[in-house]
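Re-run with default settings, no changes from the original entry. Doing this only to confirm the output is reproducible before filing.
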Amino acid sequence: MKRYASALAVFAMFLVSTAEAAEAPGQWYVAPMASAIWVDNSRLSDDDVGAHIALGKATEKYNFEFSAWGYQLDGYNDNDMWGTDLGFYRVWYRERRLTPYFGMAVGFMKNQNNRLEDTQGAQNSFAFGLLTDLTSSRTIALRTEFRWRLDYTGDSTEQDYIANVGLQIPFGGKPEPVAVVDPDSDGDGVPDSRDRCPDTPAGVVVDANGCPLDSDGDGVADYLDKCPGTPAGTAVDAVGCPLDSDGDGVLDGDDACPDTPAGARVDVRGCEIKAVIRLPGVEFEYNSANLTPASQATLNDAAATLIKNPGLKVEVAGYTDSAGAEEYNRNLSDRRAASVRDYLVNAGANPANLTSRGYGESNPIADNRTADGRARNRRVELRVLN
């Protein structure tokens, strides 16, 4: 029965040691505990159980206490063992539910033996324990501890091992307030209790939730974003830059031909440049080489394409319909082609890469017998030379 009681005490100590605890400083407390003792073999007594009670005062970092304890040991040598001591213990983490402590006690003990000579005198012990707060108001705690006691009362030093399990109950006085610590593990200025991104790298600017800023809302934090001004809704890569899936230099959001073959020359819309670049919408004043305002958008795109491809050489080719004298039409188409070339040069295209020529009414692309056909034949094209 005694061995079962000892095993039960050790098992209870193991269970509560995995819990969390807390204790308030600034109060007196009383701690009644049940004990299990494993005695030195020289006592000629069996391991047994007993009682231990402590009266103490808690401060911010230390507990000071007076204890009394006793055991009735059976066996070959029946031994009534009892004693008192003064203890001094260092306590950690009072602000948490789990409060470990460690320290020592010194005092008096007496052994009343039926076979051996009675002894009395000094003893001291070393203890490690845990306090588990059982209430949110910190009014009661479960106390568990393991103690190593050295008995100096006989001719030789005897060593006993004790496990104590009980309650620690504060009384009297008002407990000192315990500062509740809310750490900031990543040092970003947002405490862990509110930090939704607790592992932010040092020095990174964060929002109120502790997460790195993403000013353009593209899903890539500013400190990783190599393209911080991405327009809203633009698909980006891992470093926050707009995607260009086919690598043609035209971003996916602007690419009218997203599957251009690798290495192909493309225009400003991301489409591969053909041998002839049509310029739809380019118009002239009647019987003149003066461009109309409506032509500007198309010619600006053409200039941007030439700038994007600085090695591209083209001929600006002008055409007319078949109405009028052939020589007149050729001269008119020549002047219109030159007008388009001048516009492209003024828009930034390299003049060394541009030539112009009028072809008059030759090379029609539609039927000159209809008004629609004649309109289509009155055109300017960019013919790629390389």
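The two ends are 104 Å apart (CA to CA). Confidence is low (pLDDT under 50) at residues 1-23.
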